[in-house]
Amino acid sequence: GINAEYMGKQWYSTQSTWGVCSGRRLKLSLEKPLHSKRSKMDAIKKKMQAMKVDKDNACDRCDTCEEASKAAKLRAEKAEDEVADFVAKARQLETELDVTNERFAIVSLQLEEKEKSLLAAEAEMNALGRRVSQLEEDLEKTEEKLVAATGKLDKAGTAADDSERAKKVFQAKAEEDEKRIIGLEKELKEAREKAEAADNAYDETAKKLLACEGELDKAEE
User: Fold this and answer.
1) Sign of the dihedral defined by the CA atoms of residues 212, 213, 218, 221, in that order
2) Are 13 and 45 in contact (CB under 8 A)?
């Protein structure tokens, strides 16, 4: 674009100089070709102006492209830095993932053990539940027996109270009977003593009577 502009200017300068030198001599004979040449010159000028505009536009586009290239280079450098950061983070995440997988394996084993323990505990709870149900049934039966025994105990207590009162009555009567027996024994002893004394007196009287009869018989003889 620059060379074409330069050549166009040179050509235009040459044509202008030649036109000034020979214009007067050839004015009449070359008026019509000169008009054609001017038209061509005007076309060349327009074309050169258009080329200059294209060149300026191209320069502007070149500057724009250079700025875009610089910005793209900066973005590329930034992207490379970000990629490096992402790579480092990815490596760190891979390490953390490995650690997490190991921890997950350990936790899985612990979970299996806990599940086994839970199943054993559930089985034990079910057995305890059945045992509790059996104990509740036994408790109900025992409570029923307790109620019945309490009723019997109340009746027995009432009977015992009645027996105690009867016992006291019998004891009082026995004491009275014992006193009467003691009195009767005393009276019996006294009666026996009186009877013995009477027997002795009777024996003495009988002896005396026999003696008197003997003496009487002797007297009658």
Assistant:
1) positive
2) no
- State how far the Cα of 157 lies from the Cα of 163, in Å rounded to an integer: 9
Q: Report the C-alpha dihedral over residues 71, 74, 80, 86, rounded to 10 degrees.
A: -90
For the chain, how big is the Rg over CA atoms in Å?
80
Q: What is the mean pLDDT of residues 195-217?
A: 77
pLDDT bucket at 20, cuts 50 / 70 / 90: very low
The CA-atom distances, in angstroms, between 6 and each of 12, 17, 95 are: 10, 17, 68
Q: Which amino acid belongs to residue 100? A: T
* Closest residue by Cα to residue 193 from 182, 185, 181: 185
Average pLDDT over residues 104-125: 87
The verdict on pTM exceeding 0.90 is no
What dihedral do alpha carbons 97, 101, 104, 108 form, nearest 10°? 160
Structure tokens at 95: 């390490």
- Confidence band, pLDDT 50/70/90 cuts, at residue 221: low
Q: What is the C-alpha separation between 136 and 147, in angstroms, rounded? A: 16
Give the tokens for residue 73. Answer: 């280079």
